[in-house]
Amino acid sequence: MSTFKLQYLHEIHQEHRIWIKELEFAEDELTVFLRRLEEVVLNNNKIELLAEAQQFQNQLLKRQEVIAQLKLDVKSEEQKIVEMAESNAIAPERKKTNISKDLVLRMEMFTTLWSELKANFITYLT
Q1: pTM of this prediction?
Q2: 101 contact partners, CB below 8 Å, separation of at least 6
């Protein structure tokens, strides 16, 4: 669990950049997983396999929505950082603020759930 303390704006900015890259990578993985799932469905007609495929498709599509929302929220928080830096034009590199606790927790939860879903999906494919 993260501890929340005052951080320099540039540190929060860096954290936001990392999150965006992680979310973009997850988007890429998700695209690959959906393509792979389509291949499985096209090459199999077992009811159990198709039912599981539908469950994974639903989970993947839900993660896609979560990724999109997280990206929007990170960009919104980043805009706040830019505004803070601009309002403190004399020494923005010395300005400190709190990172959004809610966003930190949501990113941690996303990372955990995404890792679990990936592991389950890979197990399903094998």
Answers
A1: 0.84
A2: 4
